[in-house]
Amino acid sequence: MLAVRYDEFGDSSVMRVAERDEPHAREERVRIRVRAAGVNPADVKKRNGQMGEATFPVTPGFDAAGVVDEVGEGVEHVAVGDEVLGWGFRTHAEFAVLKHVVQKPPAVGWTHAAALPVVTETAERCLRLLNVREGQTIVIEGAAGGVGAAAVQLARARGARVIGTASERNHDYLASLGAEPLSYGRGIAGRVRGLTNHVDAVFDTAGSGSVPELITLVDDPAQVVSIADFTAPELGARATGGGADGAWDILADLPMLIATHGYGARVDSVFPLVDAAAAFDRVETGRPQGKVVLDVSLS
């Protein structure tokens, strides 16, 4: 099969698309013929050597959508031929094995389906850590990005009030999701206090150095969670990096969230598999407005 791979850490110049052996479904996993795969900031960080050691060659990718063509022992909720989306490893390839997988809603296209798994789980995990619930107010820093926008929608579905920060070009988008938009940057705490005198929780997706200000908005610094600033615990806030044992059960709620709340992911751009290096560059330096996706059907 064709797959993206790199044999050393570095920038996009170390990436290439080449033949690799096909993976096969193991216990409680399925193999899919990949139709589309998401490109996440974590993919770029891993390629750059910022996520620890790796066994080379590496094929990146964590989320994907496609058609099941092998089912491992213990899998009963999907079958060969089903259209699915989910999470696994090495998804930037023609075939991938997924651990957490659900049926793809028929109304959702391949590229938008591939954009959903990682951002949805990350947002849900953090909202659970913060115990966000109906009637509360949450501030989301970096609310127009993939995870931030997912968190806005999931918090609104809970009945929470959401104040979201973003550049002004994204304010209309945040308002369309049900958030009250504010500009990010220095002085954010004062701007939030201009809208409310009480904040229950803060979710930082941006890692822009705003945590010292953000913790002044809540009674307990532990009610600030960051996925992008791992110095946050030094101030009493929390940081989470996720992984296999996260809030993956939220994927089962996607059909309800889509049908009832119009939940979805904004896709910034789509690249064919052979242009994976350009897709990584878009994530790393292009300030994408939404998720970058690889269209593997074009390989």
Automatic annotation (TrEMBL):
Gene3D superfamilies to which the protein is assigned, alphabetical: Medium-chain alcohol dehydrogenases, catalytic domain, NAD(P)-binding Rossmann-like Domain
In terms of SMART domains, this protein maps to: PKS_ER (SM00829)
* Species, as recorded: Paramicrobacterium agarici
List, alphabetically, the InterPro entries matched: ADH-like_C, ADH-like_N, ER, GroES-like_sf, NAD(P)-bd_dom_sf, Zinc-ADH_QOR/CCCR
Read off the lineage from the record.
Bacteria, Bacillati, Actinomycetota, Actinomycetes, Micrococcales
Q: Does the keyword NADP apply?
A: yes
Going by the entry's taxonomy, the superkingdom of the source organism is recorded as Bacteria
The protein's GO terms of the molecular function aspect are: oxidoreductase activity
Q: Which UniProt keywords apply?
A: NADP
Q: Where is the Enoyl reductase (ER) domain?
A: 10-294
Q: Does the keyword NADP apply?
A: yes
Please report the name of this protein according to its UniProt entry.
NADPH:quinone reductase-like Zn-dependent oxidoreductase
